[in-house]
Every structure is written in structure tokens, then in C-alpha cells.
Amino acid sequence: MFTSLETLNFMRDFGKDMAGFLVDAALVDLKTELVSALKSCYDIADDLHGLILENVLSDSHESHKLSKHAWFHIVHDNDSKRVSRIIIEFKPKWLTKADNIYCRNCSLSQMRDEKRHFCPLDLVFDQAIRAGVFDLLQALHPSVRARIGQAYVIVGKVLIDYLLGQNSVLKRLRDLQQQFPTYELSKLSSAEEVSEELRKGMSLRDVGVYLEIYHASRRSMFVAAQESFYSTEYEVRPIIFDLDPKSATRFEHWKTTELRLQEFCNSPNRYWKPCAEG
């Protein structure tokens, strides 16, 4: 269990590499009485500090679940039901490609007997991005797509343009993951063998990402979409959240999962298309 200060310092260690991407965070002091009250209800550390993070979804919004780790948030104009902006939320997980039929994400989903939604690698490799965005968004219920109209079409175009760019948050995250490989997972036999680099690598593979899409003028996306289909008039604000340190005591879970995945990563599945090769 890590303190708020330890978590904030961990985030700041990645500050240079993730400049402009990390969610805003600030350390605040907590009263002893509040900490005592919290400890009586929850298993938390003796920590007289807390972290305040930007609430990306603070405005009036509706949320639609796309799959286990993916959401489509519609933020409204003031109190109206018009679309102000769209926020896509998901966990990209492992963005490094292994020499297998399926990446680690898809292998894990198959092991858990989950239905295929999208492969995160399809949002990183240029030749697969269009298909990846289609897979990501097509899970939104048809009635919701119809209700938001052209805004849904715009979101797809804007996402494709953004993800094809070299400054995509997912490409940056992939590059960082490559700096902290996880090859030794299956060989671990104790917590003492877990290196600092491996812990960082596992943290980078468990972050969440928001992609906030809005019109450059900040006017209603609903209105703007009726007037223009030019995706260049829209902007994407990427936000990485849930970047926190991982305990070495999780090594047994990591190792067990890694070994179990070997059964799925190279076993053809007619219901699951092969992952992008990069």
C-alpha cells in the first residue's frame, strides 16, 4: 500500500516522458479526524495526505459501456441534451506486440471467455487504425448513435486522424512500455526478484486513457456537426490516469497469468481475428 505522496512522486517520475498527457493532480492535507473515520470503514494506510485529481467527467453527462474496459461518455451543453463533447475512456493495457497470433490483451480476453470488442494494438499501428476505431465505436448501441447523429460520425473521423498522428498518446505509451519490458514475468520466484523497472512496466500497462473530443471553438459539438464534416475543426485532448506504483507482492498473480496465457496466444480462434503485426 502506497501513500499519496509516494503515488504523486511516482507520477512525477514520468512527468517529462508524459508531458501534457498526465491527469492534473495535487497533494492536500487531511485532518486526523477524517483519516481516523476513513480507517474505521476502509483498509487504508496512515496517510495525512490525499490526492485531488481533475474530474474529467464533472459536467452533466451520460455514460455508455462499450465493453469491460471501455466507455463512451456524452457530455451535455449546460442543462440541455445537446452534445457538448465526447469522451472515450478505455484501458489500452499492453501495447507491445509479441511474436504470437494474439497480443496479450486479446489472449487474456479469450482466457476469460470475453466477447471480442477491439484490439488496442489496432489503435497504435497505422495500417490497422481505421478498423480499430470502427471496432471500438461500433459497440455503442444503435439508438444512441442515431440520437447523437452526425456527432457520432465526426468522432470516428477525428479519432482516426488523431491516432494516425505521431504524437498520439497511445504511441507515446507504447514507446514507454518498450523501455520497461516484462520478459522476466514467467521466471519470477519471489518479490525480491521484482525490479523497479518491472514494477514501472506493469504500472504503464494498467493505466486508463481519456480521449476528449470537442470543436475547436468550444461551441456545441451537436451544432457544429450539422454544419461541417471537417475533422480538422475538432481537437482531441488525451489524458492518462490511474498511473500508480505496483507492489512487488503481486508477482505471483503476474507470473500465474503469464503462464496461463501461453495456451491462448498461439491457438487459432475462428471467432477472433489475428492481432496487428506492426
TrEMBL record:
Under InterPro entries, the record lists: Ins_P5_2-kin
Its Enzyme Commission number(s) read 2.7.1.158
Report the superkingdom from the record: Eukaryota
Q: Report a single Gene Ontology molecular function.
A: inositol-1,3,4,5,6-pentakisphosphate 2-kinase activity
Per the UniProt entry, what are the Gene Ontology biological process annotations, in alphabetical order? Answer: inositol phosphate biosynthetic process
- Extract the Pfam families matched here: Ins_P5_2-kin (PF06090)
Q: Which controlled-vocabulary keywords does the entry list?
A: ATP-binding, Kinase, Nucleotide-binding, Transferase
Q: Which reaction does it catalyse?
A: 1D-myo-inositol 1,3,4,5,6-pentakisphosphate + ATP = 1D-myo-inositol hexakisphosphate + ADP + H(+)
Q: Name one GO cellular component term.
A: nucleus
Job of this protein: Has kinase activity and phosphorylates inositol-1,3,4,5,6-pentakisphosphate (Ins(1,3,4,5,6)P5) to produce 1,2,3,4,5,6-hexakisphosphate (InsP6), also known as phytate. Phosphorylates Ins(1,3,4,5,6)P5 at position 2 to form Ins(1,2,3,4,5,6)P6 (InsP6 or phytate).
Q: Domain comment, in the record's words?
A: The EXKPK motif is conserved in inositol-pentakisphosphate 2-kinases of both family 1 and 2.
In the record, the note on similarity to other proteins reads: Belongs to the IPK1 type 1 family.
Query: What is this protein's record name?
Result: Inositol-pentakisphosphate 2-kinase
Native species = Candidozyma auris (Yeast)
